[in-house]
Write a structure and sequence with these properties.
Number of domains: 1
Radius of gyration: 20 Å
Structural class: mainly beta
Order of helices and strands: EEEHEEEE
Strand order of the largest sheet: 1-2-5-6-7
Distance between the termini: 48 Å
Length: 126
C-alpha cells in the first residue's frame, strides 16, 4: 500500500521515529523518549478542489517525555518512587479535517492528544 505513504488520514506518515532510552546510576534512574511524525498530506487520494489547500498539508510533530525514579532497595518490597512528565514541550497535534460526525480532530494513534501532563507513583513487589 505504498500509495498511502505520507497519508496522515490513514495513519501512514513517511517517517515515524521513536527513541527510547534509560540510564540508571545506583538507586536513581532516568528515562527519555521522543517521537517524531513527519509532515504529510491529509489524504493522498483527494483530487484538486475537494479540500482547501490550507487543510491538505499537515506539519511534522515532535513530542518528548521524561521521567525519574528512585529505588529504595533496603525497604520491604523494594519500592520504586517515580515521576513522569509526558509531552514536556506541550506540543499540540495537528488538526486533521473531518466530517464533524465523529468528533475526532486528529489521529490519536499518531499524536499525543492530552498535552503536557504529570504523573507519579510507587511500584512495589509483594
Amino acid at each position: 500500500m505504498s500509495e498511502y505513504a505520507g497519508d496522515l488520514a490513514y495513519g501512514s506518515p513517511k517517517w515515524l521515529l521513536n527513541l527510547i532510552t534509560s540510564y540508571d546510576r545506583g538507586p536513581i534512574g532516568f528515562d527519555l523518549s521522543a517521537r517524531f511524525v513527519s509532515s504529510g498530506e491529509y489524504n493522498t487520494t483527494y483530487v484538486v478542489g475537494e479540500l482547501a489547500p490550507a487543510n491538505q498539508n499537515l506539519p511534522s510533530n515532535f513530542t518528548l517525555n521524561t521521567g525519574i525514579r528512585y529505588k529504595l532497595s533496603s525497604w520491604p518490597g523494594a519500592p520504586v518512587l517515580y515521576c513522569t512528565i509526558s509531552n514536556v514541550l506541550n506540543k499540540a497535534p495537528p488538526l486533521i479535517p473531518g466530517t464533524g460526525l465523529t468528533g475526532v480532530e486528529t489521529n490519536a494513534a499518531l499524536y499525543d492528544t492530552m498535552g503536557r501532563y504529570f504523573f507519579g507513583g510507587v511500584r512495589m513487589r509483594f
